[in-house]
């Protein structure tokens, strides 16, 4: 598929040939690239509804998405760094954090750019719905101050829980996806600047994450 994952789409059985159609039962197992250890999921059988107004029908099971999530998580694809340059574009710095968190202002008197490191701490859970699917993500985000010599200094780390819904639609003969962030929660995991009230940060961090992360997935 890419540098992160490979897919096994070999046949599970001989094709079933009928007068009006041919039925192909493919495996659809996704592995981390170069690692073919079986994923910790069990494939459940499913059927495609009888329809005859199109030439080709494709059906993807929840198992396919579960193994995809496991493969990309195992390969480290969900580890994201929002670099200093991007944060500077949004004018996010230790001075901004310090204006709402007094502990940061005391810890970092001189304004510095910041860098954000996000990572999934558990395999994202994907559930199929009637017209969409939901993704539950458990992760963490570490905030760094970028010093003049390009060294980084960790300020604090937060736990993140996010729930998103993704709806797929056909537009102009292309498969498009629209992503909606249903829930985004934060909790303080570790701090080098002292304990502070995490709710003070939720608005600004929600804005950063929705602006930076969601458009990268929308429509792809």
TrEMBL record:
The keyword Signal applies. Keywords: Antibiotic, Antimicrobial, Disulfide bond, Glycoprotein, Immunity, Innate immunity, Secreted, Signal. It comes from the Eukaryota. The cytotoxic action of BPI is limited to many species of Gram-negative bacteria; this specificity may be explained by a strong affinity of the very basic N-terminal half for the negatively charged lipopolysaccharides that are unique to the Gram-negative bacterial outer envelope. Monomer. Homodimer; disulfide-linked. The N-terminal region may be exposed to the interior of the granule, whereas the C-terminal portion may be embedded in the membrane. During phagocytosis and degranulation, proteases may be released and activated and cleave BPI at the junction of the N- and C-terminal portions of the molecule, providing controlled release of the N-terminal antibacterial fragment when bacteria are ingested. The N- and C-terminal barrels adopt an identical fold despite having only 13% of conserved residues. One of its GO terms (biological process) is defense response to Gram-negative bacterium. Pfam families: LBP_BPI_CETP_C. InterPro entries: Bactericidal_perm-incr_a/b_dom, BPI/LBP/Plunc, Lipid-bd_serum_glycop_C. GO terms for molecular function: lipid binding. Its main location: secreted. Residues 50-217 form the Lipid-binding serum glycoprotein C-terminal domain. One of its GO terms (cellular component) is extracellular space. This is Bactericidal permeability-increasing protein. It is found in: Secreted.
């Amino acid at each position: 598929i890419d540098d992160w994952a490979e897919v096994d789409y070999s046949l599970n059985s001989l094709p079933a040939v009928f007068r009006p159609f041919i039925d192909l039962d493919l495996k659809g197992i996704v592995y981390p690239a170069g690692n073919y250890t079986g994923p910790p999921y069990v494939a459940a059988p499913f059927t495609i509804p009888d329809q005859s107004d199109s030439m080709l029908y494709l059906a993807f099971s929840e198992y396919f998405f579960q193994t995809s999530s496991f493969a990309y998580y195992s390969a480290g694809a969900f580890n994201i760094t929002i670099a200093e340059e991007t944060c500077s574009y949004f004018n996010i710095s230790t001075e901004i954090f310090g204006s709402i968190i007094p502990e940061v202002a005391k810890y970092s008197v001189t304004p510095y750019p910041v860098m954000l490191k996000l990572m999934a701490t558990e395999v994202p859970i994907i559930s199929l719905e009637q017209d969409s699917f939901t993704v539950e993500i458990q992760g963490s985000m570490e905030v760094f101050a970028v010093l003049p010599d390009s060294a980084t200094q960790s300020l604090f780390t937060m736990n993140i829980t996010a729930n998103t819904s993704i709806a797929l639609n056909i537009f102009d003969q292309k498969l498009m996806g629209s992503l909606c962030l249903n829930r985004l929660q934060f909790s303080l995991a570790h701090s080098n600047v002292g304990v502070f009230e995490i709710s003070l940060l939720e608005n600004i961090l929600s804005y950063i994450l929705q602006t930076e992360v969601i458009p990268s997935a929308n429509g792809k």
